[in-house]
Amino acid sequence: MKSNKPLYHHASELLKIRQLKGLEFRARLKEYSQPVQKDLWDRIFVYIDLIFVFILLGQSLLGFWIQPFEILFALVLLPITLFTADVIGQVFHKALDTYAGEEHVFWGKAAQEFRKHHENPANLNHVSYINHLAAFGKLMLPMFIICLFFDWTQNPAWGANLTLLLFVLLNATEIHKQAHLQKPHPLAQVLQKLGLMINKKDHSRHHQAPFDCCYSVVNGWSQRLFDGTGFWKKMDLFFWNKFKKMPRIWIQDPRAIPATVYAELKNNPQLIPEDLIIYSDVFSHRKSNELKNLLYRD
Question: Which residues does 8 contact at the CB level (< 8 Å), separation at least 6?
Answer without folding.
Answer: 102, 115, 248, 251, 275
